[in-house]
Design goal:
Elements: H1 2-23, H2 25-34, E1 39-44, E2 47-54, H3 57-62, E3 74-84, E4 87-88, E5 97-102, E6 108-114, E7 122-123, E8 128-135, H4 138-141
Parallel strand pairs: 2-3
Antiparallel strand pairs: 1-2, 3-8, 4-7, 5-6, 5-8
Helix pairs in contact: 1-2
Length: 158
C-alpha cells in the first residue's frame, strides 16, 4: 500500500510540473533556475563540448527553455532511464539548436536542426537513451554525423 501511495504522489508531482511548464511559464522558469545543473565535458572527434546534465523529469522538461544565449562550445545532455523514442519541441526556446539522438552504446543515430519557438515535435526514429542539444550547426561544423560514437557514453566495458 505504501509503495502504491508513493507512486501516486510521484505521478501527481509529475502531472503538476507538466501543468506548470505548459500553462504557467513564470513558475517553470523559476524551477529551471532553481535546479542545480551538473556539468561534464564530452570529446567528440576531437571537439570538446561542455554540457549540462538533464537527468531528472524536471530538468528534462525545462531543458534550454528561457535561456538568452548558449556559447558555441556548450550544450545539454538529456539522459533517459531506459531506451525509448523521445520527442523534443522548442516551446519558449529562443535559440536555434541542433539535437543528436544517441543510443545506449553512445552511437549517434540521427541529428536534426530545431528552430526557435517551433512547436513541431522532433521525434527520434529509434529508441535512444541520450539526446544532446547544441547551438545549431555545431555538429556540422565539427564534421560529426550519424554513426559517430561519443566516448564515455554508453555501456561500460568490464
Amino acid at each position: 500500500m505504501k509503495r502504491l501511495l508513493g507512486s501516486y504522489y510521484k505521478m501527481l508531482l509529475l502531472v503538476f510540473f507538466s501543468f506548470s511548464v505548459f500553462l504557467c511559464p513564470p513558475f517553470s522558469r523559476a524551477i529551471a533556475r532553481a535546479e542545480e545543473w551538473a556539468k561534464i565535458s564530452l570529446s567528440i572527434k576531437g571537439a570538446v563540448l561542455k554540457v549540462e546534465i538533464a537527468d531528472s523529469p524536471l530538468k528534462r522538461a525545462a531543458g534550454l527553455m528561457y535561456r538568452g544565449s548558449l556559447k558555441e562550445d556548450e550544450g545539454m545532455l538529456f539522459i533517459f532511464l531506459a531506451p525509448e523514442k523521445v520527442s523534443f519541441w522548442m516551446k519558449d526556446t529562443t535559440l536555434p539548436l541542433s539535437i543528436a539522438f544517441i543510443d545506449a552504446n553512445g552511437v549517434i543515430k540521427e541529428i536534426a536542426d530545431m528552430q526557435p519557438n517551433d512547436l513541431t515535435p522532433i521525434t527520434s526514429k529509434t529508441k535512444v537513451i541520450y539526446a544532446l542539444e547544441t547551438s545549431q550547426g555545431w555538429f556540422k561544423a565539427h564534421k560529426i554525423k550519424a554513426g559517430d560514437i561519443i566516448p564515455g557514453l554508453g555501456k561500460k566495458e568490464e
